[in-house]
Amino acid sequence: MGRTVTVGTCALNQWALDFEGNLERILRSVNIAKSKGARYRLGPELEICGYGCSDHYYESDTLLHSFQVLAKLLESPATQDIICDVGMPVLHRNVRYNCRVIFLNKKILLIRPKISLANAGNYRELRWFTPWNKARHVEEYFLPRIIQEVTGQETVPFGDAVLATKDTCLGTEICEELWAPNSPHIEMGLDGVEIFTNSSGSHHVLRKAHTRVDLVNSATAKNGGIYILANQKGCDGDRLYYDGCAMISMNGETVAQGSQFSLDDVEVLVATLDLEDVRSYRAEISSRNLAASKVNPYPRVKVNFALSCSDDVAVPTCMPVQWRHHTPEEEISLGPACWLWDYLRRSKQAGFLLPLSGGIDSSATACIVYSMCHQVCLAVKNGNADVLADVRKIVNDETYVPEDPREFCKRIFTTCYMASENSSQDTCNRAKLLAEQIGSYHINLNIDVAVKAIVGIFSMVTGRTPRFSVYGGSSRENLALQNVQARIRMVLAYLFAQLTLWTRGIPGGLLVLGSANVDESLRGYLTKYDCSSADINPIGGISKTDLKNFIQYCIENFQLTALRSIMSAPPTAELEPLVDGQVAQTDEADMGMTYAELSIYGKLRKIAKAGPYSMFCKLINMWKEICTPREVASKVKHFFRMYSINRHKMTTLTPSYHAESYSPDDNRFDLRPFLYNTTWSWQFRCIDKQVNAL
Questions:
Q1: What are the tens digits of pLDDT across the range 34-66?
Q2: Residues labelled catalytic
Q3: CA within 13 Å, CB half, 562
Q4: Residue among 319, 338, 499 nearest 13 (CA)
Q5: Cβ-contact 578, 428 below 8 angstroms
Q6: How far apart are CA 615 and CA 690, in angstroms?
Q7: Strands 441-446 and 300-302: what pairing?
Q8: What is the pLDDT, as a whole number, of residue 583?
Q9: Does residue 89 register a pLDDT over 90?
């Protein structure tokens, strides 16, 4: 009697619309799963076309090419004698569904459409797909001829059903369905389903991984069973980093854990588990058994195949493991680094250029690139042939082997300190020392000639010369002169990114990195089209508080002692004249609020969905020990006034790594107007009434 089943799941670094590469990675994962004895292989959500196709889902080409890849998978010898569960879009009766296609030995067993679509935050599935609302209902799906020719089938089951093999029963969930309050695994488990599968396209957010793990383990803790989760990994073409964490759980405990951050394009987990453990676990839960006796049964698709062997008494099974979570500092070190690596190799550029100011933000960005170099060297050392091949293409050397992160950093990373007459020697020294310690190719230049030329053109045309406020100028003049410096730096950054390698006799160009943090973006404390305008920004979704902790982590783990003085220095833009050779301008004084306050405003505005009045009501309690209601009112008004005045800057925000759930990214995560009535007259009047009452 068969009792032990061997199942496989994976995390794949798929790329939107890269059908050829996606097919190769799927086949590789099937081969690895089979080599480890798996009889069932689960892949990520929409793995055939890649999850992030967005409006390309509207195109018939995406459907056509997905079926072409499916035909290749059905024909492949690799997919024989193993149940394969793959994800792709399917058009059924002129309605587009996000589906799992489950097949065995050139026969499609079931097409299972997604029931609960993800439509919050970064997700827009309802824009492209329709949920399957016919619970426990199956229809005939007429296969396209390209598939009929391979399978010999004209129609296959399409809908909400489960698979009944010779030895067990499997039910499917797709990503969001695990998070829904009425998850399908509840009713499926009551109906005798013993193995639940979940194909995800779940992206990284700081401090989120434990939520997914807890949901998976709790799914089987209450109901018993085996839960298998697959997830996408890597950057598949936009701001998100899908963070793997493939896992297998049984009866509330994790038995196999995949990596959250890795440069491996294909990672496969396989576990051998005893079905009798599920049955005995369920047998003593009387409340479950009473509910099961009344459950409405699922349609079952019979499969003449077993996940176990007839004689498997001596087969060893997997034991529970303790899930190891990364600290937030480790997440910052690894997640954005892996995202940068995917972006670099897939954009076919020769490296990065970063304007390095000697402050915390640009230094944190530099440390993430250095961490990326560490990850690359480690992957090559561990025998990752894909990473080595990509490295050689990037550096244009077919014999090169990266062994030292600093040496590799020198080849692919250029840092540039752009001094002006308002820059201090301290920041220049800090930038230079950090560049030396991480190994980047460092450039020092002075922008004063360009700034004077731009201001000179204005003076020649208007007959007026603007002055800084310390020399008697107005606030308008002061701000305009700061903006000119900032924008000149952006122009020079792109010039040097295009031509620096040319001057060194090296082919290719560099991607410009931005380094504005999430709090500055929220407040609008940046010049539109300055160095915050770049190709990509690895820290744009990370708070100043987290970046400071990350800098401390780098001091301890990478021995970057140059960061100590950077940590202790007050953040400054260095755009106003020095006083006695020392910096007089600081970020928090300019903003009229601290970074700690900004982080709180951001979480209340986005996560707590608080407008000015609600934010005031929450903060008078949160800050009752340190602020009077009138002071709280003043702070809230100032934040919303500054936020609304500067919101237009978010429309041109550099694409940033999404890491924080209060990100102000205007592209699709934080949808707001960018022309506000900045007086907030009605809202502020409500606050004033409360202040007077208090």
A1: 999 999 999 999 999 999 999 999 999 999 999
A2: 45, 114, 175, 357
A3: 23
A4: 338
A5: no
A6: 12
A7: unpaired
A8: 63
A9: yes
